[in-house]
Amino acid sequence: MKRALFTTAVVLASLQSAWAEEKTLVINSYGGPYEAVQRKVIFEPFEKKYGVKVQVATVYSADMLAQLRAQKAAPQFDVVQFSGGQEIVAAMEELLAPLEASSLPNAANLYPFASEGISKGYGPVALVTVMGLIYNEKTIPQAPKAWKDLWNPAYDGHVVLTDLSNTYGLQSFMMINKISGGSLENWQPGLDQVTKILDGSTVITSTQEMQQNFAQNDAWIAPFAQDYAYVMRKAGLPVKFVQPEEGGSALYITMNAVKGRPNADLAAKLIDFSLSPEVQVELAREMRYSPTNRLAELPADVAGEVVHGEGLQQLIRFDPATVAGIAPKMVADWKRTISH
Predict the structure, then answer these.
(1) How does pLDDT run across 122-156, given as a tens digit for each residue?
(2) What GO CC terms are in its UniProt record (predicted)?
């Protein structure tokens, strides 16, 4: 009898452990304000709605892909976010669980570019951050309109460039190269153009340095991200963002289900929750990310600072797989150029 009771207790403990595991979703985020806002707008409301626990780990995109590879036999994450196109590689390596459109009701209202990955084995684009130009509206002689304004002689000595070791710097350089007549196969035109504007310009490596230059070093203009212009403005700096007339560069943030996890249904629900127009409006309001759900109606003050609607159709996305292959050589060439 005692043995039977012991066996029953063990079985119940095992079941309770399994139930607890099934009620917990593990997802990565990117720390700082981004993660804080996601907790407030997505994870905590989702927990209340579905009675589950969302466990968040701060893991950036490249490291997240490395962890998925290392954990392939026993994955530890249910949902992963990528911001650099790693979802394409992860899907090719069968690290992600394909999603059915029927499990994502909000996917029907996404812009086509945001939902096309679902049929290719990876998750939808939940948010877009746009690379364009940020500028000090109080000190710059004339507000910029185009990428070519970066080499306007009137701005000499007041331009800030970001090193290509930073994703924002890499995206910015590829836009400069494209506007200068280059391509992903030939980035010499971009390097030649950078050489012309390096004298008197500042090259930084981090977002913190960008804010310092606008606050302390009389920076007027820089190629940088839409959302970070808002971060700087909240810090009291008179910084504005403009989508250049030649178009902006798009960085997609995707949410993907991981293969081999027991919570596939809940994972899909969390991803779909992030695609809802209500959540996307809040993320645009809180962080100035561009929504991918066409039903997201932005307040006027937010809409004036966020690329949305038809503006999203003008964005340029450089093929992540191609960029991953050329980036090391491009970065090396860049470092030689700026060191001269």
Answers:
(1) 999 999 999 999 999 999 999 999 999 999 999 99
(2) outer membrane-bounded periplasmic space
> Where do the structural domains in the chain lie, given as residue ranges?
2-128+251-314, 129-249+318-339
* pLDDT at residue 11 tops 50: no
**CATH of region 129-249+318-339, choose from 3.30.160.620, 3.30.70.270, 3.30.1360.70, 3.40.190.10:** 3.40.190.10
Asked whether the predicted pLDDT for residue 8 surpasses 50, the reply is no
Fold held by 2-128+251-314: D-Maltodextrin-Binding Protein; domain 2 (3.40.190)
- Angle in degrees, 0-180, between the axes of helices 320-339 and 188-198, rounded to the nearest 10: 40
pTM for this structure? 0.85
Mutual angle of helices 207-216 and 226-234, in 10-degree steps: 50
- Of the listed ranges 7-16, 47-56, 262-271, 292-301, the least confidently predicted one is 7-16
* Number of Cα atoms under 13 Å in the Cβ half of residue 251: 23
Q: Beta strands 79-82 and 249-257: pairing type?
A: antiparallel
Residue partners of 39: CB distance under 8 A and separation at least 6: 29, 56
